[in-house]
Amino acid sequence: MAQAHGLPIANQIRRLRFEHEEMTQSELAEKIGMTRQTVAAIEAGKYSPSLEAAFRIAHVFGTTLDEVFQWVG
Amino acid sequence: MSFREKSAWITLVTVLACFGAYFGAIATGRVSARGFDTLHLLLACVVGLVLLQVVLTVIAAVTTPKDGRAPRDERETLIQLRSQSLGYSVLVLLVLGLFVPGHLGHTVIDIMNFALLDVVLAVLTVAVAQIIMFRRGA
After folding, report:
1. What is the DSSP string of A45-73?
2. How deeply is A11 buried, as exposed, middle or buried, from its count of CB atoms within 10 A (0-12, 13-18, 19+)?
3. How far is CA B73 from CA A50, B3, B26, B98, B134, in A?
4. Could you read off the pLDDT of B62-99 as tens digits, one per residue?
5. How many CA atoms lie within 13 A of B61 on its CB side?
6. What mean pLDDT do residues B125-137 have?
7. Is the CA virtual torsion A63, A67, A70, B1 positive or negative?
């Protein structure tokens, strides 16, 4: 689980990418209409995506939002 | 490095180089701050700045073709808004400071150069803030 750098949100993007045919950050970025650097920042917990972007990421992995992002307070 | 970050670096380097040369020449007395030499130097610096930025931006777009064509994503837009907000605050403070040379008896041309320096410092603030935010992730 990627723990946020001071952000209260963790995510499972790295694990989900590897479970989906080792999808690269660039491939995920292209699918959600963002740059690779933004995906890297989200994955590292340095940037909290908008609700729309979060739903797009969950949609790419065919899962729910809370499977991808967790509130850790 | 993303295209937007490269653009911020290009702005920082080209503005520093071109306006550094301009204000350096005035500060060291190589050109008079009140003559046509200053105007010619300013025009040369602005033309040089535009040419350098165009050439370097084209090179940046060629080396990151996907990013170069793509619109800003939400993180890049946020970074742009935050950095421009900071740059605006810096500009307002510096422009308020223009009263100081005005009261010290500087000429209108001197004050215009101070105003130009304020704009340059605000642009540099935006570029540096963008680079820092891109490096930190957000």
Report:
1. TSSPPPHHHHHHHHHHTTS-HHHHEEE--
2. buried
3. 11, 12, 41, 37, 13
4. 887 777 677 888 999 999 999 999 999 999 999 999 88
5. 10
6. 93
7. negative
Domains, chain A, in order of start with CATH, read 9-71 (1.10.260.40)
Measure in Å the smallest separation between the Cα of B137 and chain A Cα atoms.
5
Cβ–Cβ gap A41/B137 under 8 Å: yes
Those residues whose C-beta lies under 8 Å from the C-beta of residue A58, and which sit 6 or more positions away, are: A64, A65, A67, A68
How many domains does chain B fold into?
A: 1
Write out the DSSP string of B81-112: HHHHHHHHHHHHHHHHTTHHHHHTT--HHHHH
Say if residue B124's pLDDT is above 90: yes
Between vectors from CA B102 to CA B15 and to CA B18, what angle results, nearest 5°?
A: 10
Q: Which two three-digit tokens encode residue B18?
A: 């071109």
Smallest CA–CA distance from A50 into chain B, residue: B74
Of A47, A50, A53, the CB nearest to B138: A47
Q: In chain A, whose CA is at the least distance from the CA of B66?
A: A35
Q: Which range of residues forms the domain containing residue B130?
A: 3-136
Find tokens 């060629």 and name the residue. Answer: B62
